[in-house]
Design goal:
Helix content is 51%, strand content 0%. It contains 1 helix and no strands. It has one helix spanning 2-38. The N and C termini lie far apart (80 Å). The mean pLDDT is 80.
Length: 73
């Protein structure tokens, strides 16, 4: 029984150690990936706004009548 507990705790410790190493490497890769995406040949502080240039109506003629909102006191 003592031998089993000793082996069990050693395996748990090794899995934790290996898991930490894998997570550190994964986080480092994700950080490098984000840096490479942010270097899109843009100057620091430059802002790019992507807008939808297609004019789309919010309502179709078949949607019903438009009712003006009036505040009632």
């Amino acid at each position: 029984m003592l031998k089993f507990l000793l082996i069990f705790f050693i395996v748990i410790y090794l899995l934790g150690f290996i898991g930490r190493m894998l997570i550190k490497n994964w986080l480092r890769k994700m950080g490098n990936h984000n840096e490479s995406q942010s270097n899109d040949n843009r100057k620091e502080g430059e802002v790019i706004i992507n807008t939808n240039t297609k004019d789309s109506k919010k309502f179709n003629k078949t949607d019903g009548d438009y009712v003006d909102y009036e505040e009632v006191e």
